[in-house]
Fold these 2 entries.
Entry 1:
Amino acid sequence: MNRLASSNRRRITLALCVVLLALAQPTSAVATKLSAVTAGAATITLPSPDLSETDPLFSPQSVCKTDGGEDGRGRLQSMLQKARAMKGYCYDSTLTTFKGNKKIVEVGRLYFKAPNLVRFEVLKGGSRTGAVVVRQPDGKVRGQMGGAFHGLKMTLSPDSKMLKSANGFSVVQSDLESLLSDAARKIGGDLKCLAAGPASGRPALVEILESDGDVIDRIALNAQANMPAAWNIFTTNKLLSVLQFNSIEPRSDLSDSFFIIGEDPSTKSMEDSDIAYSSLIALKAASGSPRLTANTHREIQQVISEMANKIDELPMSSSTADSQWDSGARECMLSTGVKLESLLGLLSPVEQIMGQDWKRSVDACHLAISDMLEQVMADTPDNVKLNRTWARLRSSVINLQAVGRCIPQVM
């Protein structure tokens, strides 16, 4: 553990990572009761996903098609237009995600202020309760830890995996316009959209279907308010998640400051070391096909080299004890993982022109970083697994370096 001294310089970037990746403690109230969903002035009752998994609303078979549903694109566009017209609102949510035989329940509250300010609060999640993430007026995504790490703050890449809830969707893209816009984009291709009014005790529905007729999205509506009440997502003909909107309340009193998490003056901002990568950052912001230059090539090599150095600085030890975790090693590993993710994200603009070997190497790095963070965030980290994952991560970055040396061939 001779590298623990360096970990003290990185303690800040812990923050929200632990909270947003997995809130695994089930909520008994959700598991045993019917959910009353309020939108505007109306209230409807929806089945809990824990009550009856054989309910038609939880089946990938189309309910709208069975009921002779009509084209649902107009209904979807109507909800999207209403969401776009809302200048400020908040809603409480319960997200139940199904992974194998496991049900992961996340309870939160989202605030939105036009044009794109978002604040998400974890309302219930065991020791993670109280965490907050915001998209600020300056465009930065900031987080603050809850529970035992209350008060620790961090800056995250907007596409960070650490922002994703258990079903894989980003909490800062969970405002109504983003959700409905994503649904509207899906039906721009080969996917179908059907709608059906309320019947037999069930709410009105909008479904997005694949060409074979199986549902990939089912939105239960509060017809009176013309807004979503619940959103079921299916993948490979199985229910992935159920998002229940427990309330949607218009808010006109939200100030910009409500969407700001201040910088910690005792820590270094993650963006500080990224300033040197101006060419890669410009490529990421630009539209159209990227063009590799000698400067871009140099920055790619620097990014990979910085990743390798940070991996070698990790305080890996097969004998790490609980007291050593408490001394800062765990925070160092979390913060380094977040930084590695940010650095890897800088390379995303060149992926489409670098070939399959590059893509496979980048994907291997992404997976190893994700696995390392998941293991570090466990209640009791497994040192054997952590060391194996560290070795895999190091090997993946070395391989990425080797593939990167072939860059001149595609310039």
Note: Residues 67 and 196 are 7 Å apart (CA to CA).
Entry 2:
Amino acid sequence: MDLSDWLEEHSEGWLWYVKRLSGNDTLANGSHQAGPYVPKGVFFRLFPSLKEHTHANAKAEIDLTIDSHPDFRRVTATWYNNKYWKVPKPNRPRDETRLTNFGGASSALLDPESTGALVVFAFAFGSNGDAKACNVWVCRNEIEEDMVERETGPIEPGRWTTWPPDGGLLALLQTAVRADCRLAKHELPQQWLKKFPSGAEIVQKVIELRPDSVLMVDKRLLRRRDCEFELFQSLEEAVELPRAQAGFATIAEFLAAAQTVLQRRKARSGKSLELHMREILIEEAFQEGKDFTYQPKSGNNPDFIFPNEAAYLDATCPRERVHMLAVKTTFKDRWRQVTEECSDLPTRHLLTLQEGVSEAQFKLITDAGIRLVVPEKRIERYAKDIRPHILTVEAFMAELRAV
């Protein structure tokens, strides 16, 4: 089945749970959890009867079909809850919800090569209120990911969304629990309510809310990214929710408003990580133009060149003194684009937030002369054999200083 047909077929009456597979979801990092993580809020929305169970590790079985490959399994929805029950000396107290019993790496959902892939779980419900069946699409390339994200907005590593496909604009505006960086309408810059700010303006406001100058750069980067997400949601709600509540005169007006929201989300996601990295470089005493060039025109347009574009273009400057950094929030298929950037350098660096990679794909990446740069906390999601070969953001910047 074509993905566009699949999305249409699983629209009305289905609940979508959409996420990117991490190394802990697949078998990429040697985890024995063997199944995609489902946040408890979503899990108990799918299986409300399990929340009332009075025994350890409540379970339910469900038919699951992976239409993209295809594959059929009778899988198990499990609430691992020994944290709340007196079980004999558990190895570790658990309170998490997962789908399991996929049959190992033969399943596209557990295949290490699926790490980083965007996945849509579409659930149908039975008469008792629990999910009775699930159809799944594991995106196989960037084109399919773009098709899904045109419906849901961008889905970044470590984040997820639920989606009533006929839920309309109000569904686009569902927000997380209020956090420190979520601002009330009166706390937002008033000019933002008249004209939506640029990504750079939002990042500057994030720095104001989260200066974090004493934190190590890896933690600072992730904290600010979370803050930006919350701030963006605040602004989106303040600007778009009144329009949605006022209603629309025509379907065309509604679709235009929804498309504006989705395109704005995608634009923010596409530039966010590199804008945060630029600000952190400046905070860490790297001078723009002298120590780095942001968005250079040479070298097939990488995101950063160190020490600067002029050094890269100087044939007398030793290549080992020149570094480049590409920035991609996810890289499952996109890492090959980096091979075309500054191809004359012995090593290219790629900053990412992706949560894991298969060992086979990691070998392809390293054989292509690309080294991953990943915030320290996210490196835990990679296989143990891979972790020593990944640079933290702090370690990458130390390499730059040593040149």
Note: The mean pLDDT is 90.
